[in-house]
Amino acid sequence: MNLQLLQEVTAFIWAEGDMLDHNEYDTWLALWADKGTYIIPIDPKEEDFENTLNYAYDDAHMRQLRVQRLIGGESISTSPQPRTVRSASNFRVLSEDGDKVRVRCSQHLRDFRKDSLKHYSADLTYDLVRSGDSFQIQRKLIRLINSDDTLAGIGYIL
Amino acid sequence: MNNMIEVVNLECDPAELVKADRVHTSLYTDAKLFDAEMEKIFYSTWVWVAHESEIPDAGSYKSTFIGKQPVIAVRDRKKQVNVLLNRCRHRGATVCEHKKGKTNSFVCPYHGWGYALDGSLRGIPHPDSYGECLDKSELPLVSLRTESYAGMIFATFKDDIEPLVDFLGPARKWVDLFMKQGAGYGIKVPGEHRFRFPGNWKIQLENTTDAYHFPLVHKSFLHSVDQQTMDMLDFVDGSGYVEDLGNGHSVMVMIPDLIDLEANLDLPIPTRFESLAQELRDEGIEEQQVRRVVRAVGGSGFNLNLFPNIACSMAFFRVLQPISVNETEIHHAVITMDGGPAVANRYRLRLHEHFQGPMGFGTPDDSEAWERVQKGASAGEDLWIMLNRGLPGEKPSEDGLVSDVSAETGMRAAYQQWKKMMSA
Description:
The complex is a heterodimer.
Chain A: H1 3-21, H2 25-29, E1 32-41, E2 54-58, H3 60-71, E3 83-97, E4 100-113, E5 116-131, E6 134-144
Parallel strand pairs in A: 1-6
Antiparallel strand pairs in A: 1-2, 3-4, 4-5, 5-6
Chain B: E1 22-24, H1 26-29, H2 31-42, E2 47-51, E3 60-66, E4 69-75, E5 81-85, E6 100-102, E7 106-107, E8 114-115, E9 121-123, E10 143-149, E11 152-156, H3 164-168, H4 171-178, E12 187-197, H5 201-207, H6 214-217, H7 219-222, H8 227-232, E13 241-246, E14 249-253, H9 274-282, H10 287-298, E15 302-306, E16 310-313, E17 316-324, E18 327-337, H11 342-355, H12 363-376, E19 384-386, E20 395-396, E21 401-404, H13 409-423
Antiparallel strand pairs in B: 1-19, 2-11, 3-4, 3-6, 4-5, 5-10, 7-8, 8-9, 10-11, 12-18, 13-14, 13-21, 14-15, 15-16, 16-17, 17-18, 20-21
Helix pairs in contact in B: 9-10, 10-11
């Protein structure tokens, strides 16, 4: 097992989660490759995300808009903004090909807004590309374990 | 005080709770009224269950609800659509727990009773113990009366109500217009966003015919689209209208130019669709069809509210399912062109994701507003919900009554139907 690589990707993903929990959106946006996609599918078995309906299928433009919506203060569902704390664990490097790494981990996220505390568990798969001494995100795939159930509004970035 | 309700027996006379210009708060909050609604509305009229494309082949099924009762919509070997109560006739277990799929039969997991796709009881394990005391022909899955119009499948518990086409009445021509989003390929429903909000189902019913909220609640969405789209969606002071179509149905026309998607195809293609149009041309599609597809991708310029549970809402089907007096489930079913150009369907999926669903830029804000209505409605239980917007300008029309685009005419139409059914 390449523990050095495992440690590198773990540190990167932990930092990414910490940015989202602390509303450091500009820094978060800068983690992405230009053509990177942020995807939250509905069907747990789906692989063709482009041609199916997702909760989110964001390119760079949509990520920018999503951040703007969260901090813009014009949306009643995100003001007040939800508070989130997420933990990622069980990191596993699925493949390494040149400067590309695919890594999977589990994420447990609690969000609190107004009088409601919610819990979302998800399986995350990152496609990362080496960039200098760090990585860029090529794809972040978030498979909520209850993705095919009814959800309530999610006013933050998973 | 003129805003306090007269002392009436609320449980006995729902008619007292609906006036020409207002409805009583208890319509959102009274659990007994909710139970009565299941009986007198959801179990007494045509309720939408599926679009035909959701169950395309023999054996394709979808499980859903009519009111609080679980049902299965399934296509049998003769390609007939059956809507069956999802309940084994033996001891009552559900026979299907999947939301959709394909099967040859429904087998109860408890004792193994097996039913054919038309609901008939076929197999009973170890039948000897029944001797002569059980006749299989008497115990099929209960099959509801089922009719469809333009691919929209409805079912009802009542054998004696009017045919579906009569129930829809003048709303049919709007359904026909809505289906032009197939651009000649036909309509397909390949998925949906499902979410719940803590509020009464009628709050969502009202919202589909509420142009008034759009610029305020959807400000953050409007600031995420280009100027041309923002201008198009600036319809509250525009020339649109709301029309009461009878039987609780209504249409809200927000963008009159987009009533008939196949009219005026020579109008300039909106900027946001220019690159899509070019991709379609590059695929060798001729210009008129390119324009037809692009128009279809953008969606219709109106919301058609069909009482009680389905709306043809610009570019998607909005389905509502009451859970309890203060909880409602909503499905926003996406529409694509069946066999249409993949690039156009992808565009359509991305547009749906942009506004709809729990992570859309529109739905969560709607949901928040509805939640606030339910919460606020627990204060001042004797107060009324005001629905008098657009009354002074309301005029008779060919199909009913018409007023300006942000009039509450459609809500009044729904509540008059509510009153009629609840008083029956």
